[in-house]
Amino acid sequence: MAGPNLEVFKFGMYILFPIGIMYYFGTNLDGKFSVPDFWPKPEQTHKIPFDRDEIKNELERLRAKRLALREKRLEEEARMQGRENGS
């Protein structure tokens, strides 16, 4: 006797559950669940160089940055060595 009632219940769940979800969330999902300014704007992202000149300029910029950081690190190490030797 429980078989037909269970089948009717399962059929009702299969039909009513998706309809209930669609009714609860509605059709305007972007308006309800979107986060403003989540994705960065194109000017805030990295621009990949494709031309030979752009690649060369980017490599020169990275090399200069790396050398500046290296020089700063060496100065800091020399200063730390001076403090250790002076103490």
From TrEMBL:
Family (UniProt): Belongs to the PET100 family.
Q: Which GO terms describe its cellular component?
A: mitochondrial inner membrane
InterPro entries noted in UniProt:
Pet100 (IPR018625)
User: Looking at the record's lineage, which domain of life comes first?
Assistant: Eukaryota
Q: Which PANTHER family match?
A: PROTEIN PET100 HOMOLOG, MITOCHONDRIAL
Topological type in the membrane: Single-pass membrane protein
Where's it found, cell-wise? Membrane; Mitochondrion membrane
Tell me, in one coarse class, where this protein mainly resides. Answer: membrane
Any Pfam family hit: Pet100
Positions of transmembrane segments:
6-25
Q: What is this protein called?
A: Mitochondrial cytochrome c oxidase assembly factor
Q: Which ranges of the sequence are coiled-coil?
A: 52-79
Q: Which UniProt keywords apply?
A: Coiled coil, Membrane, Mitochondrion, Transit peptide, Transmembrane, Transmembrane helix
**UniProt source species:** Delitschia confertaspora ATCC 74209
User: What molecular functions are annotated in GO for this chain?
Assistant: unfolded protein binding
